[in-house]
Amino acid sequence: MNQAAIPAPPPHAATLLGGGLCKSFVSGKLRTEVLREVALQVWPGELTLISGPSGCGKSTLLSILSGLQRADRGRVTALGEDLGALDATALERFRLRHTGFIFQGFNLFPALNALDQVRLPLQYMGLAAAEVRSRAEAALAEVGIAHRQRLRPAELSGGEKQRVAIARALAKHPALLFADEPTSALDAGNGQIVIDLLHRIARSHNTLVLCVSHDPRLIRHADRVLSMEDGRILDDRRLAPPPSPLPPDSSRMSTP
Amino acid sequence: MVALARQTLRHEWRRFLPVVVSVGFASLLLLLQTALVLGIFGSASVYVSGSAADLWLGYPGTQSVDQGRPIDPDATTALYLDPRVQQVEPFLWFDGDWRGPDDTGAVSIYVSGIDTRADGLMFARLLDPALRAALREPDTVVVDRAELDKLGVGIGRSARINGHRVRVIGVGRGLRALGGVNVLASLETARALNTDATHPDWPTYMVARLRPGSDAAAVARSLAGHGAAARIEAWSAADFARRSIAFWMFDTGAGSGVLFLGGIVLLVGVAITSQTLLATVLGAAREYATLNALGVSMRALRWVVLEQAAWVGALGLLGASALGATLVALARAHDVPVAFDGSGWAACVAAVMLLTLLSALAALRGLRRADPALLLR
Predict the structure, then answer these.
(1) Which of A58, B188, B255, B288 is the most buried (most CB within 10 A)?
(2) What ipTM was reported for this prediction?
(3) Are A169 and B300 within 8 A, CB to CB?
(4) How many Cβ atoms are within 10 Å of A195's Cβ, its own excluded?
């Protein structure tokens, strides 16, 4: 791995660590190695991008680091918790408390308006109804579509839908935010809005934002870019200095 | 509170309509089948349910009203001695051979010889008092108005029963029998028609009205303990009606055939409903997977699917009940033997909700596609 000139934050400050990660898929008699001994550290407060050609294993790495899938070998530590040691229920609980997801397809329920899309996952967090509502409204305001909160997905543009999806993830106040190709279904203008939002969320909430993309626009705006090929990280470039001093936890978005 | 199940149902009603329709049709079939079963097999007990008698005495071991055999009137004297008994009358029942005036061939009939006094117990709930009085004229009979065609007669026309000439003096409603035609006559006329050479006067049953407040089942038990018990058996009216219906329902091929058909309706209902429900689950698999990625448990998502299924079942039942009630009323107006009560409806509701639950459980496998890791490929 190459290290660029800009120094990385100290390893102990990393909130997400992967070590010796291996994953392979078997199809018939064919065994494909998707990840080969991948090790990485990801820090909060910055937008980290994993890029690489399709089939290089970047999405698999994202799903293992986010606790959606288990590695064949290796270890993932997120917020000090060994994800490999958690059973399926405990993993769901961990994801509910700490992680947000943004997918390429917006995956919004056609029946729900923007506000309800954001409120829905919050409901399962055991929050009071008033807090669910205020968090949802704040998140929609933060992504700039508070005025569209009564509209259903069919009445929203692609960019607006992705912003609802971001608000849905953001309203949970996650420490870890994962995004998979969040801009590839969007035009230039909307893609730029989404990129700026992800960047801003990382900075203002001290959230760890880990993003998988091959969108060159996104690469330019990332704080750090990990380049993957054939299941390995070939390059680790830092494009911006780490946020310094790191914002304290209390600066995370609070309930209005 | 975001009610995902209900809001989705309302918004995507086109997607759920086939499920509601399939549940609705299964419900309607079950409801109508139940109404027919209750109506048809209920007519097995029409002698009991249509009469005002509280107590029935008959041949020991009689399984259904229409299986009665003559009893010795002397064996029933205890009935007259019991202070709880207010009124006693004989009921004569036998099968006969009807020949209409025209060329309609022979028809198997059941002759009921009843007391024609104004306060007579037999068929008190079905027979118009004027019609009962009219039967006092010798050699006259009353039949159900829906049977006139089958018997090949009209009111006022004559026919022959067991070779004896009778005249149809009027028609009633709700008198249809299972497996034959009911013909009502006075006790005197019936005795004249009876071909039982040994005991033409012996009644098939003795029926009694009890004094208000008496427990029919207790009286029946005490009569059974009497010395003549070996020659007669006593039942409360409710017990005897149940016995008759159960005999037809469970001890004849007809009943098990209907139950089998009910089972088939449920099975086909589950097959169709689970498939259409599965399609709706699969249609939302990506959204469910996203919720699961955000930490909403699979258990919670299963509840969403089950809640949706419960609503679908309730909507299907609602539609089927409205349509079913209309069709039952229509059938009744055309003298089709249908009957419906709360317990029949409750049994159908339970069966349909079971159908829906089984379908939903089968459709839950669609949630396996809601694996969030699949969203990242």
Answers:
(1) A58
(2) 0.89
(3) no
(4) 24
